[in-house]
Amino acid sequence: MIETLLLIGILVAAFVGYNIGGATTGVSFGPAVGAHVLSKLGAAALMSVFFFLGGWIVGPAVVETLGEDIVPADILTLEAGIGVLFFIGLALFAGNLFGVPASTSMTAVGSIAGLGLATGTLDWATMGEIVSWWIVAPIVAFWVSGVIGRYFYPQLNEWVAISRRETHLWVVDRSSTIPKVSAAEGTDKREITGSLIVVAIGCYMAFSSGASNVANAVAPLVGSGALSMEWGVILAGVAVTIGAFTIARRTLETMGNDITNLPLTAAVVVMTVSATIVTLLSAIGIPVQLVIVATMSIIGLGWGRATRTTTVTDAVRGGEETSVSVGALTAEEEGEPAPEIGEEEAADIPKASDLFDPSTTARVILVQNFVPVLATLGAFLTFRFVPIFGF
């Protein structure tokens, strides 16, 4: 009986990891794929490798938090763990069907919290710490990105701006036994350097995703003692790989083309800030919602860029009004020297709709909030009223 339950648990955990691969590959490599720097197949391959590395090196700290700290270990039995994983996977699958990369960390914590609420064993101190960081992390992302946007982004744009291409940056010659990769015709050194930066940051994002999200797939099984930490990480890595090569194509399309026209220079800043925050918090065992942190980073970067239309002194004195818009990120062309702070014209700053597609953005926000709620309510109602779990 135990072997059968364990097999079911592994299959459900694999289903969760499959959906995590679909959700997080788009976040990590959407900008690179949307700019034709990287193919969807290449994105899936890199996601597989760096997700596993993040899960193996940093992920165990988050596994312990989800598997032991939110609810007592004796409550998170193998049967309960399977139920928790089922609702995590079901909720994430719903998000992936809409092509939206939902927050896997919020979904996993919500499902486990549903178990704790149903059994009256929820550790409110641990939940309070996690939720506090969920509030603080986006604020930190906003301000760090805001400072970069105001004081450093224009210079970065002048030095390393990366333009989006309509054709692929690299071509593969398969005429010989060993395929050869070379730069496409018309590609200059600036584009090659920029493309390498975008891909490298995508790999960093994948690493941070593994650090935070490997726990979402296997923490219930590891916490119940049914699976060792090492085999849990391996299981999550394999499942994410399958998801990255299959269902991730939809989220890559959404994040790479539909939701935003974010310049790649800005995307590099956003991805670096977000991945660093997520990796640091994962190292201390805090599961973080990467998608929301990245969104606040985009807003902060645009806000900081927009404030360059006035000096700090003028802003304090109220001498000028500052038009704040995330669309400010598109104000300069690639490589164009930036005016000094206070010398830029507010009229040069595009409106927000120039950066985001309103309908797609509304759909993303709606689904991202619906998915964790679905997992929490489903877990609570099941563990509270279905007697098969013995609570």
TrEMBL record:
<feature type="transmembrane region" description="Helical">
    <location>
        <begin position="260"/>
        <end position="278"/>
    </location>
</feature>
<keyword id="KW-0813">Transport</keyword>
<protein>
    <recommendedName>
        <fullName>Phosphate transporter</fullName>
    </recommendedName>
</protein>
<feature type="transmembrane region" description="Helical">
    <location>
        <begin position="231"/>
        <end position="248"/>
    </location>
</feature>
<feature type="transmembrane region" description="Helical">
    <location>
        <begin position="284"/>
        <end position="303"/>
    </location>
</feature>
<feature type="transmembrane region" description="Helical">
    <location>
        <begin position="44"/>
        <end position="63"/>
    </location>
</feature>
<keyword id="KW-0592">Phosphate transport</keyword>
<dbReference type="GO" id="GO:0035435">
    <property type="term" value="P:phosphate ion transmembrane transport"/>
</dbReference>
<keyword id="KW-0472">Membrane</keyword>
<feature type="transmembrane region" description="Helical">
    <location>
        <begin position="131"/>
        <end position="153"/>
    </location>
</feature>
<comment type="similarity">
    <text>Belongs to the inorganic phosphate transporter (PiT) (TC 2.A.20) family.</text>
</comment>
<feature type="transmembrane region" description="Helical">
    <location>
        <begin position="370"/>
        <end position="390"/>
    </location>
</feature>
<keyword id="KW-0812">Transmembrane</keyword>
<dbReference type="Pfam" id="PF01384">
    <property type="entry name" value="PHO4"/>
</dbReference>
<feature type="transmembrane region" description="Helical">
    <location>
        <begin position="75"/>
        <end position="98"/>
    </location>
</feature>
<dbReference type="GO" id="GO:0016020">
    <property type="term" value="C:membrane"/>
</dbReference>
<keyword id="KW-1133">Transmembrane helix</keyword>
<feature type="transmembrane region" description="Helical">
    <location>
        <begin position="192"/>
        <end position="211"/>
    </location>
</feature>
<dbReference type="GO" id="GO:0005315">
    <property type="term" value="F:phosphate transmembrane transporter activity"/>
</dbReference>
<dbReference type="InterPro" id="IPR001204">
    <property type="entry name" value="Phos_transporter"/>
</dbReference>
<comment type="function">
    <text>Potential transporter for phosphate.</text>
</comment>
